[in-house]
Amino acid sequence: MVDESAWGKSRGLDPDLPPYPLVRHLLDAAAMALFLWDRYLSESQRRCIAAGLGMAGDPVRARALTALCAGLHDVGKLSGFQLCDVRARERLSDALRGDLGRIGVERMPHEVAGMHAATAVLAALGFGEADDSFEVAVRRVAEIIGGHHGRFHVFTDLHPVNRDLLGGPAWGVQREAHASAVFEALGAPLPPERIDAPAAVLVTGVVILADWLVSQEEYLLRRQRELSMSPAEHFERSCADAEGLVREAGLLPVEMERKDFSEAYGITGEPNPLQRSVAEELAAAVGTGNQGAGDGRRGGILLVTAAPGDGKSETALEAERVLSERFGTRGFAFLLPTMATSDQMYGRVAGVVARQAGRGAGLTLTHSMNWLNSAYAEDELGGVRVLTCEGEENGEDQRARRELDMRPVRWLRGAKRALLAQFAVGTVDQALMAVLPVRHNALRLLALSGKTFILDEAHAYDPYMQVLLGRLLNWLGWYGVPVVLLSATLPASVSDRLIKEYLKGAGLKPAELKGRTFEAPYPGWLYVDAADGACTQISQARQKEQAAARRMRLSVQVEPVVHGEGGGGRNRLAVIRRLLEPVTEGEGGCALVVCNTVAEAQETYLSLRKVLAARRQDGDGGEVQLLHARFPGDERERRTLAVTDGLGRSGPRPVRRIVVATQVVEQSLDLDADVVISDLAPLALLLQRAGRCWRHETWWVEHGRPQDRPRPAWAKSPRLAVLDPLVGGRGVPGQWGEVYAEFLLKATSDVLAQRGEAPIAIPEDVQELVEEVHGHRADRFDWGDPAKSAAYTAYRGKELAERSVGDILVVPRARSVPGLDALHHLRGAEEEWEAATRLGADIVRLLCVYAHADGTVTLDAEATRPLPGADGPLTPADVRTVMARTIPVNATWFKGELDRFAVPERWAEHPLLGDVVMLRQPCADGRARPVPVGGRSLYLDPELGLVRQ
């Protein structure tokens, strides 16, 4: 008989009532797991788990076994855990208190105790030893129990002489009795013959999610008052309660009401040939409409290649519609390289989801600073208040209102939960942590395994991140997740490697992949089926239509330049001023100048500001805008919006404007300039920058230009001017440091020189040019004179080193997991803050404040905004205000000096503010004075952003 004096939950509950009995919590978790199986998991996830449990033809049995794992997750609390709460301990029965055994002799977390006790508990349920595979299955259940707090442990079974570490015989009897109560409530499910490691990971994710949902304080307080009902009645009520808990958490999936193209995406006009091809030809290739999602098909990977501005985002969402219908996934994760691009995409996806799924759909923004996004703020529309997201929202901005309509409920905003929503937009880092040895990586894999996985800007990741991405694709391949990769400039060697990783995860043998390469047509798409590696691609007719629709001949003008002082007519700033004379002195126009460093962007801005200032005195000026990553967050958001409004598709388009920016404009910003001027960069990035030149020309020709204003007469064709400091054999400018590899810069310079004045045909020349610089070729190394290949050797050496680091850190491939503890193979590295999804990304958030002569410290130079928390406790609005003013910077700037820049003591223990670096700038006459830091000086300029000299 179950002893209900053994407790499962106590903290935060009514002290006048008995603690929440352990058996009730186990029954709650089992009931929730049943509902999650039925309503939250996608058809593809259920199929994967059942197959991985050896129950491919019996999903009902797999459902019950998954729920049993959830119902056993806390069985280890029948151990020393029972003694950790004084009030609850005093309520333990005499039988348990009188048979403590050696409890307390060895400290043991309850999840580890449960893992140790699992073999005996399962044997009592009839999971006896039959053969080796059966023994592995029992071990897997034990690992799942041990991993329900997010970290898997090395499986060991307690020696009989040490079982009293978990209590005497009475405790063992109660563990078996508690397990039997769950077992019987679930109809005594038959044991599995095997449990494959990837399936066990998904089951662990379900267990964690079920545990979290039924452990919410409000729910437990209500159930604590209902303990008079029998365990059977309790289980029945728990089953009935599950739907409400899942709905309140924002996890109840909704069905998409698919609309036609223009209505779904809010776009005037018909889909372009690329989009039409995916909707029609891809659908025919995967068999949509002919076979159901439950026929056992196991996903596939789609690579979409097209020039910037070709509507790849909408193409991806069309592909999601086709693939989810075919393979039984539900929702999507749309992932990008940066927080800025994620914020931009979140607004677009919010509209798409709202138009096709309504307000009930769960949509989240997933990156480390998502709570600063306006969609996570409280506003006049009402809704759930979130601790750090109080604020106001401009209700007259209809785009903002749509995002707020789709804002996630409180539960989904919690740490590690955002990916669990049906629709998620964010940085790829959040997904890559699924294959790093961090706590709750199983939950991330559960979140990703039921969705279509969309990765934008697939070219934007370094070799280290490519290793992590490849490993993630390997796991997604095992789970049959349809994957969509988008890129304008992806080398074939990289796409080939990523596709093969996916196919290996799906089960294709090395012999089946040997000698095969997977290259996508450009522009177009390549689809590779996970079942057999069969390839389908865009038809030649559609490819030609797409190429014709977006055909552009890009003039490339290489300008030799000298950086720094001197250089005469070749001085970099002098060349820029000359190139921009048609804008500054003539009839105007819109120009984009892209710089490789923030310092050079600031210098360029100051130079051009003087030119336009002189013209403004004559009454016919223009505007120069500066955009880079070293502005405070709120200021950067304002500037980004101002730039995209002026150079966007809808207008109003300014008569005369110059935008000076850094690499922040390379990805996902929808800009159209009459001319683009760029510092020399690797060729793939130059093409990305050039994608902002005449980006909307085709659309404007068909639908009309903003204000019906034509381009200036001097802008006869799209033109990219490249400022090349390497012409004549000179070296890479010292101020560039290691922003780009010397080899890639030299190779790009050489390719441009060889082309001479020949324009680049877009899209026809793009892939060939990318391969010429970024592709791996045997002739790169000069065996006759190795010294000539020094830059290439350094480049390849760095690339191999980064890949090696990734191989060390990443979890094993899905089909190579011996024990689940391999997913946490680096001891002491389980916390997410210790995980590195990017090499060299040791970033701190810098807050620039102003120290005035009277001793006050404020957030502004005018001394009107006191430092929050000075006169009382910090409010959520205070925290939001402070973090919105921070700037991400390289932590090495402050090496050995962080103590000098510590936050006030009252902030030190705050989970967000405690790690902020505070730059106290002496302030006089309303201006900040530079602060010495690491041999340089720093100060925040209202026009230039953070200046480092």
Structure summary, number of beta strands:
25
Strand numbers in spatial order across the main sheet? 5-6-4-7-8-3-9-10
State Rg. 30 Å
The profile of the biggest β sheet is:
8 strands, mixed
Strand content: 5-15%
Give the overall shape, derived from the CA principal axes: globular
Provide the residue-averaged pLDDT: 89
Query: What's the end-to-end separation, in Å?
Result: 75 Å
Helix content: 25-40%
Number of helices: 32
Which ranges are low-confidence, i.e. pLDDT below 50, for 5 or more consecutive residues?
290-294, 378-408
Label the structural class: alpha/beta
How would you describe what is shown here?
The chain is 40% helix and 13% strand. It is built from 32 helices and 25 strands. The strands form five sheets. An eight-stranded mixed β-sheet has the order 5-6-4-7-8-3-9-10, with helices on both faces. Strands 13-14-12-15-16-11-17 form a seven-stranded mixed β-sheet, sandwiched between helices. Strands 18, 19, 20, 21 and 22 form a five-stranded mixed β-sheet that branches. The longest helix is centred in the middle third of the chain and has 20 residues, at 598-617.
